[in-house]
Amino acid sequence: MTDMKPSILVTRAIFPDVIERLAQYFDVDDNQEDLVLDSGALRERLAGKVGVLANAADRIDGELVGALPQLRAVCNMAVGYNNLDLPALTAAGIVATNTPDVLTETTADFGWALLMATARRVTEGEHYLRAGKWERWSYDMLVGMDVQGSTLGILGMGRIGQGLARRAAGFDMQVLYHNRSQLPDDVERSLNARYVSKAELLQQSDHLILVLPYSVESHHAIGAAEIAQMKPTATLINLARGGIVDDAALAAALRARKIFAAGLDVFEGEPSVHPDLLTVPNVVLTPHIASASEKTRRAMANLAADNLIAALDVGPQAGKPPTVVNPEVMARRR
Ligand code: DGY
């Protein structure tokens, strides 16, 4: 008789070789059909499972945690983990992990792409051309805002924020930032970045990029009152999470030209997008793809799998998941 393997759930389709790797240790309930599991389906599929490889869109809340006494590990394939009720997981002794570092540079690259596209009206230009509106050259056709030589504001100076600051050096930009805590002097010097208050950041940035985590505190960190403090020539880029920006207020501000333009990769209530954002011309919209390069998505899936295998005390790193967000649970287990 063979030993029964512990059961886990992988909530969405991922690379088949990652499923195979997990199957060496676990009985894997996969979802390679890629059905979106609502909270009822998630609860049903998680019954009897000891671990889950989740996606940032899977809400694992206190109620679900309470209904799953056998659950021991929740491993997000995302650096953000606002989909998890961390206090509830920690109280229940469930390890939670994320996928930092492996996506930093790819996400910062995309932030740069969104900044350039927004400031220089790249998608608007393409729509104009495809619509057959391009009849002749004119001095003021689709003029935008310069990126080189301008002032970049970064709200949230973690790994991705620092990646953006490094890129800004090549564009001869002045870098300002605001963060929960100020960076050490040597890091600030190496990034050529200056800490300012949130109000100064709003008032002085030519381009403001949001890369802070979503939480109750950062909900609507940028709403009508904040946008009113920005320059009318400024651009706003949201690379972080929907809900940090009040999307309705932003759409109204864009329509009234209170700021020049916005670039958004994340939305409140995504994959739904506020209907007003779909009709204003001065916004670049992308479907939450900042970390979407082949190499990075593979690295994220493998790191999430490494975490799950180790958190469930098997594999080469048994008991030592590499990127835990509630280390107190691991400490209690020892
Ligand atoms: C992340 O890793 O948090 C990205 O936003 C993908 O969800």
The spatial strand order of the largest sheet comes to 8-7-6-9-10-11-12
User: What is the correct CATH architecture of the largest domain?
Assistant: 3-Layer(aba) Sandwich
Distance between the termini: 31 Å
What is the approximate shape? globular
The low-confidence runs, each spanning 5 or more residues with pLDDT under 50, are none
Report the sheet-strand fraction. Answer: 5-15%
State the helicity in percent bands. 25-40%
Instruction: Quickly give the structural class.
Output: alpha/beta
Structural domain count: 2
Say how many strands there are. 12
Going by CATH, the homologous superfamily of the largest domain would be: NAD(P)-binding Rossmann-like Domain
Q: Which molecules are bound in this entry?
A: (2R)-2,3-dihydroxypropanoic acid
Order of helices and strands: EHEHEHEHEHHEHEHEHEHEHEEHH
Radius of gyration using CA atoms only: 22 Å
DSSP summary: helix tally = 13
The name CATH uses for the topology of the largest domain is Rossmann fold
Largest sheet geometry: 7 strands, parallel
Query: Overall mean pLDDT score?
Result: 97
Short description:
With 334 residues, this protein is an alpha/beta fold. The chain is built from 13 helices and 12 strands.
